[in-house]
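Practice problem 4.
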């Protein structure tokens, strides 16, 4: 095969890898790649979209030459699924002697470690980010915070956060969400009030955090502040967090307002869990007719939304 024909074969394979039917034809594409020898990282990366981590691992082991790009692609695939997180570290231990990780490898490696929630591993990886000089790279820094938070060590996460030279909104949101999930809503409020930039995720974390603590009045206050003053529109996660608050507190007025909003935004059609929450709210408020009306409107139903 000439060099021009080889380049053409590579282009055809790359188009196949990004095709909507890739999941079905993955093994056929693999066979084509083995014949024409384009870069294996393209196929390994495609395994991420296809949710085929075990296939990616077998493919990686089969390839004779493992570049840092291929190494990173394999780690990224394995980091996406909790069940494959341990495989990511087995792969890392096999290759780290010959291929020192870079910033593109460290970020998914930290993500894989998050699934394992192991403090010793968290500190080892933190040390690796420092020794490699990539600790300040935003995706790596965010990965360290998320890893410490998942391991239940918010003080380590806080110390790292405090030392960051630049903190993007993702880092702030991870810290706030970590505090809220562990019930420390006062620390979360402190960070929230210091933020110069917020997002829907920020507001959702605060609303859900107070709701989980049973502080319904404060959760509703944050919801109203978000709706009226923040400039952000509630999404399905916002509604799923605040509707149970309306149900517990018997606040049908706010619940009905949310129902009308969900109808306007098409959330009853697109998000079954929002419809379920609205039905539950109406049932607990004693308005069975409205609950049945919402149920009848929902094009998709689940076993839990029968009024």
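Answer key:
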């Amino acid at each position: 095969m000439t060099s021009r024909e080889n380049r053409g074969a590579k282009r055809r394979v790359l188009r196949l890898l990004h095709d909507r039917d890739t999941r079905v034809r993955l093994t056929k594409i693999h066979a084509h790649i083995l014949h024409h020898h384009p870069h294996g990282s393209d196929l390994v990366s495609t395994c991420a979209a296809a949710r085929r981590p075990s296939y990616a691992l077998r493919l990686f082991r089969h390839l004779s030459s493992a570049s840092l790009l291929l190494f990173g692609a394999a780690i990224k695939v394995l980091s996406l699924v909790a069940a494959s997180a341990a495989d990511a570290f087995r792969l890392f231990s096999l290759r780290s002697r010959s291929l020192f990780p870079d910033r593109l490898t460290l970020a998914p490696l930290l993500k894989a470690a998050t699934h394992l929630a192991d403090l010793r591993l968290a500190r080892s990886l933190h040390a690796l980010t420092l020794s490699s000089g990539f600790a300040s790279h935003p995706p790596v820094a965010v990965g360290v915070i998320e890893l410490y938070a998942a391991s239940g060590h918010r003080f380590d996460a806080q110390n790292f956060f405090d030392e960051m030279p630049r903190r993007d909104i993702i880092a702030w949101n991870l810290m706030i969400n970590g505090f809220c999930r562990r019930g420390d809503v006062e620390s979360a409020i402190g960070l929230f009030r210091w933020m110069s930039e917020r997002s829907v995720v920020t507001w959702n974390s605060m609303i859900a955090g107070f709701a989980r603590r049973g502080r319904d009045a404060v959760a509703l206050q944050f919801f109203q502040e978000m709706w009226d003053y923040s400039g952000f529109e509630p999404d399905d996660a916002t509604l799923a967090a605040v509707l149970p608050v309306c149900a517990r507190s018997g606040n049908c007025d706010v619940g009905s307002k949310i129902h009308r909003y969900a109808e306007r935004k098409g959330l009853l059609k697109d998000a079954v869990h929002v419809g379920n929450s609205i039905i539950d709210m109406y049932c607990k408020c004693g308005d069975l007719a409205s609950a049945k009306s919402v149920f009848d409107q929902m094009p998709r139903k689940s076993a839990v939304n029968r009024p």
